[in-house]
Amino acid sequence: MPIPINIPVKGPAAAPSRKGEFRRSPDDAPEDLRAMALELEAKGEWIVQRVPEPYVEVQTKYGKAKKIPLQHTWHHKSCGQCGHIPGYSTSIFWLHRKLGLEYNDPRDQTSCTAWNYYASATSNSAAQAAVAMRNFAAAYETGYFPQIHCATSYGHYKEVRSELIHHKELRDQVRDVLKKMGKPLVIPEEIVHYSEWVYAVRHEIAKRQVLDLRNITATVHPACHYYKLVSEDAIYDPDVYGGQRTAIVTGVARRSAPRWRTTRPGSTAAASASATSWSSGTSPAPSPSSGRSR
User: Fold this and answer.
1) How far apart are CA 147 and CA 246, in angstroms?
2) In this predicted model, what pLDDT tens digit does every residue of 146-199 receive, in sequence order?
3) Does the pTM of the predicted model rise above 0.90?
4) Hey, which CATH number is domain 34-263, 1.10.1740.10, 3.10.150.10, 1.20.1050.140, 2.60.40.10?
């Protein structure tokens, strides 16, 4: 039973009524970068690392589905968050352990250099893209799927993906850089931010709630680099402000019902059973390496 919190609360004013209904269509999206990445893989340009099961499918800005892996994730930490907000990454790891979900806290990750990319612009496209792809290759080599903690890294990497998809010369330059490191050119099937994972598991977090927060009014600030850069890849929910605001934080606060997908074509019965049992409230048994650095 959640413990009630009794503090003075001033409720928000009623939202003004809006005429009509706010709608988006997949046809309105600028382009399908995921499909384009898969096309380049078919041409032998690079490897696309597939999202592991179990995963949740969520709705992005223009209604397209995005796969969010629940576990077996490689955590790309943030120099800014770790340096300025102590406990940020460890809180994410703590949530994984509480939910019984396996993860990898890598020790060979480099900085994304996105602050340099957005602020000083002293580098060049090939160097910036090579940093991103080096980290993606490091995740691929472990067999774990990258999950990005920092919104600035997330926005930067989404822009890098777009640049690499559209410019063969840049792909060739980055491939040559990685070849010198002995690493493959790999792009994830989805570029996933940690807040999207929290959104995907929000109902499981709510089941373990200790404090009663129903009388708390929260004001949230979704990271601008999360939803303004390659905006079509951000999560939106029709139940959150009619789909006019990104849902990653507000959706967690509201704890609305998720849309689960437990299998995909070609999946094994074991993977399906694991996803189904976890979504019904029981965690799959973690492997011996669950919750540890590898």
Assistant:
1) 19
2) 999 988 889 899 999 999 999 999 999 999 999 999 999 999 999 999 999 999
3) no
4) 1.20.1050.140
